[in-house]
Amino acid sequence: MQNLNTQPSHPFFLKPLLAGGLMFAIVGLLFDFQGVQALLSPSKPVSAQECETIVQAKARLSRETLAQLLAIPERDTKERVRQVVSEPYCQLPELNVRSGVVAEREAYPLEFDPKTRLVILYENDEYAGYRFDFHQ
Amino acid sequence: MSLSGCQMKASVPPRSVPVQQTWELQLGDRIAGYFVSASLGDISIELDGAKVYAPFPGDVEPTDIEYCVVFSSAEVPAYLFRLCGLRRPKLGSVSQGEAIGSGRYLHFATLRRQPDGTWAIVEPSSSVLERILQPAL
Fold it and tell me: Which residue among A6, A97, A110, A123 is least crowded, i.e. fewest CB within 10 A of its CB?
């Protein structure tokens, strides 16, 4: 009786090749575990820091005011900046970024894009700078 | 193996961070053939493989020194945090408390923006460094 299984169904080199490929993929996944985690986990929202104190609930920055603010150099006084932007919508919690110096942070929603806020940082009543916060 | 890392690097261009202080030996220099891995103003932490975390929601960007990244946040205007020595750092947007890398050593510096566009290395506060070393603060 003829044995129909005498010939392997795949070329003799295929199994080691598949096994090698599998091992390579496993090692690759182990090395890139952080990337895999990022792919599998749902994207986390980037949470904006909550206001600590609402100062002026109606405060909004217009384009004109923003343009004036951007012309003020860092290291100018807080008073000079406040003359331009008036009272903020809110204050964020105080923070020490530099050792021994308290950073005050004030936030202003933009009149023309209320989901974006401008955060201004002061240290020792000196204007340190601003950033737009798009993550609200 | 590090395809995702390469893609990240390709999508986040390196950021140039000119430092105001012009010390003779700067981070990234070479002396007697050896790489200068930290400079005056860096705090070096023995991580021993532990992770570091985003102290605020923000962005991790590569720098023109391959060994270092900078972290910035809209919640901390006028400042950059330079982190050197991390293996395969996570680049791009990160949430507060999210791991951004690990390494044997972390060389950490706080930089404050100057009116001329340079960045001055300043004395870092313990509280920000604690946030970087512990995820739940």
Answer: A6
